[in-house]
Amino acid sequence: MIRRVTVALTALAAALLAPVPAARAATPAHDPVVRTDAGLVRGETTAEGRQFLGIPYAEPPVGALRWRAPRPVHPWNGVRSARAFGNKCVQTSSWDPGYDRPSYTEDCLDVNVYVPDGSERRPVLVWFHGGGLTAGAGRDVVPDTFARRTGTVVVTVNYRLGAMGFLAETGLDREARDGVSGNFGMLDQQAALRWVRSDIGRFGGDPGRVTIAGESAGGRSVCTQLASPTAKGLFRAAVIESGAYGDCGARTHADAVSEGADFAQRLGCATIACLRGKPAREILDAQGDFDWGPVTGGAFLPVQPEQAMARGTASRVPVINGSNKDEGRLFAFGDFDLNGTPVTAEQYPDLMRQNFGEEALRRYPLSDYPTPTIAYATAWGDAVFSCSALRLDGLLAARGPLYSYEFADRTSPPFASLRNLHTDFDFGATHVNEVQYLFKHFGLESPFDAEQRTLSRQMIDYWGSFVRDGVPRAAGQPAMPTGPGVVLSLKTAAEGGNTLSATVRQEHRCDLWDSPSGS
User: Fold this and answer.
1) How many whole angstroms separate alpha carbon 73 and alpha carbon 76?
2) Per-residue confidence at 475, pLDDT binned at 50, 70, 90?
3) Catalytic residue IDs
4) Whole-model pTM?
5) CA-CA distance, 460 to 280, in Å (whole number)?
6) Three-class SS state of 94
7) CA 451 to CA 497: how far, in whole Å?
8) Does the pLDDT of residue 17 top 90, yes or no?
9) How far apart are the first and last CA of the chain?
């Protein structure tokens, strides 16, 4: 299942539109300068506050540093400009302008910092982007309005992706202190968190009040960091958005090394020196459909995340966890309707049997749905995302404070990348769609109506309150529930408003997907 989701996320990576930094509101002479451990950086003042873009947090992982744990960045002289995004990490192109060309740049380990006006010490949100661990960048969200409205400092992070971030190989194992390679992208995230602990105070952030958050592969990253012993103490709270797919599972060391050997063979390499000598273009061309993701067995991740949570060894910090009501619609659209081949009524039975089995076909009768694609998408989303999130709730509640939600606004406009496709497909509350309610997705304002703007403000209030004091609240709205089995259903007033739902497991048929015979 984790491989299926990784392939699907790679094909539908959210990094699809060129982001637009906030409008500048000052001349360079008045732009803010901050001293970091490595040197001075000059950001800019905007209508929302201050922003500092493209600050390196580690040495570029190039040459001999390719496939090594991140190293501290070398200090620089003078004042470094922090007024433009840094490079995207190595990744393929995708189906929309802005990411219409591959990136072959390994010099990409940087952060973007958004600071509201004021001088008081503020809590910090660190955001890990989605993209199937093979695509995307910190620039994919511009959280300046969120920072201003919540009074928080927000940091977005680039980390190594695909083969560059997750290659495991026997030669690399010999170089690793713990004998386990393949977690370079996850170690980058921890290096960024250590940069935050060291430097964020100079930007007005409180290093003792850090919340990590992410959506999709970013949410999976958060789940993984919760289980990592080497991440303890780097954050005090966490938010997982649509990140529980595959039960936050990681590759076993044996499987990862086996795939690494196949990858090296594809490149015609028998040594690490040969692999390090290959141009990034060749690495990217060869990474194909391998399963790139974290690896268990070493100091970073001794056991699977679900085992760490069940055993009580995972971080016990407060967590918000949730998913979207119609997660599967994005993926079904990408597999079928996008290509002009929507699922037909004739295809539906065999498609369901092949992917989910006879019982799933019975439980998702075509007559219950407006189209065969939507019927298939519902089963896909329930199996892969919704029920996985609800199972994770049980593990999270056993190890520390938990708050649960489901984004259920079926009136929501498709997120920015989908709007550019000019399709009338009914995406509903699909994967990624909640992100635009929190941040400017790809730097763009969403075309919300009045009720959607109200829901956006409420969600920002919930998330902002959680970042500030570890409890999600919104004035005049229901409290986010604190235990498994009940979720806060986030909807516009036209859809019934924000309500508590105790029937979410039944709605997503989790008795089927939680059973041993479920897919």
Assistant:
1) 9
2) very high
3) 216, 327, 431
4) 0.95
5) 39
6) coil
7) 9
8) no
9) 8
